[in-house]
Amino acid sequence: MEERDIAIQITGLKKQYRLGVIGGGTLQGDIQSWWARKRGKDDPNRKIGTKKHHKNETFMALDGIDLTVCKGERLGIIGHNGAGKSTLLKILSRVTGPTEGRICIDGRISSMLEVGTGFNPELTGRENIYLNGAILGMNRAEVTGKIDQIIEFSECAQFIDTPVKRYSSGMYVKLAFAVAAHLDSEILVMDEVLAVGDMKFQQKCLGKMGDVSSSEGRTVLYVSHNMNTIRQLCDRCIVLDHGKKVFDGDVEEAISLYSDIKKGNLSAQVDLRDAKRFSTVNTMRSISFVSAAFLGREENCFKQEDRLKLWLKLDSKIDIEQAKIRVGICDMYDRKVASVLCRDIGAIRKGDNEVTLELSFAGLATGTYRGDLIVFDTNEFGTVKEYDIVLEAFYFEMENKLEFTWNQLKWGPVRLPDMNVIR
User: Fold this and answer.
1) Which of 102, 151, 206, 380 has the lowest tally of Cβ within 10 angstroms?
2) Contact 25, 47 (CB under 8 A)
3) CA–CA separation, 5 vs 71, rounded Å?
4) CATH number, domain at 288?
5) CB under 8 Å to 318, separation ≥6 — which residues?
C-alpha cells in the first residue's frame, strides 16, 4: 500500500476518561456538585438512576487501536454500546483529543456525530449551510455553487430560511446530511444519525454515500447498529469490544462475530443506570429505569410455552397516576419484530418503584433477540409523553422444538401458528 493511498492512519490510539466527578456541565453546576459532596449530600446535578463515581476513578474508552483506512474505502464500525465507536469518531473529528497514540489524516473531515452537530440553532438552514462550508475552509462562492443541490437533496426547501431550532429531529438529519455529503471534504464520518430519518431518506443517504465513495473517491466511516445498512454500504468492517479492535475484514464475518458477542450477554439481571438511551428523550429524566431481571432465571433462554416474569425497578422525581410500559423486540439484524404493551402499571411515586410484569415471547422463531424498554403515559387528548427509552436493555435466546431449522432471513423472525387442513 502506497502512502498516498492512505486516508487515515491510526497507531496505538488510547482514550481515558475520568468518571463523573467534575466537568459535567456548567461552572455553577460543578460548584453545586462539589459543595454537596463536601457536606456529604447527594449531588443535585446527578442524573436520576446513574451511578456515583469516586475521585480518580477512570475508564479506558479506547485501548490501543491500530487502523489504516485507504482513500475511497467505505468502512463500517460496529460494536456493543460502550465499545468505543463514538469516541473513535469524535477523536477523528477533533471533538476531543486522544490520551495516547498517533493519528495521520490526509484530507478534510465532514462529520455527523449526533442530530444537529455543527448547527447554530439561532441561524436559518441557509445560514448554517454557509457556516458549515466556512468551517471546512470553503469560500462563499464555492458554497453558493453547491447550495441548490444541498437544498434539493435535503427536502427542506420550504423551511430553509427558518431558524433550525424550529426543525424536527428528522429535518435536522436531512439538512445536516445534505450539507456533509455535498460540501468539499475528503472524509465523511457518520455516527448512527440516519436512524432518526424516515426509511426512504435513509436509503437515499446510503445511495449518496456509495456514490461519493465510488465516483468521487471520498472515504466513508459509518457507525450503525443496523446491520442491513452496514451490509448495503460498507466494503470492509471492524468490530470494537471494550475499547479494543477485535476484528478487521469482511463485512459478513464482522457481523457474525458481533452477533456472537451479543449472544454472550444473556444475563437474567441487568443494571440499566448507564445503559444507552434514545437521544431525543430529555437527558434529565423525571422517570428512569434502574434495573431489570427475569425472575427465577439464571440466563435468558426461553421456550415457546414459558410464561415470564419481568421485574423492573424505576426511579422517579415525579408522581404520575397511570404509567405505561412497552417492551420492544428486535432481532440480531436490528429489525423491529414485535412489541409487548402494559397499558397500566398503576401509579408511580417519587423515589424507588418496583413492578413485575407477566409476558410471553411465544411466536418468535429460534434465535437471539434484544429488548428495549419504554416508560410513558398519555394525557386526555391521547398525546404520548415518553420519560425513558432504554435501548438494548436485555438480550434473550428463544428455543423452539422443531423438526427443521427455522430460517429467519427467508421466513421472518416471527413464527405464526401452523395452518390446518379443512376437509
Assistant:
1) 380
2) no
3) 6
4) 2.70.50.60
5) 286, 287, 348, 350
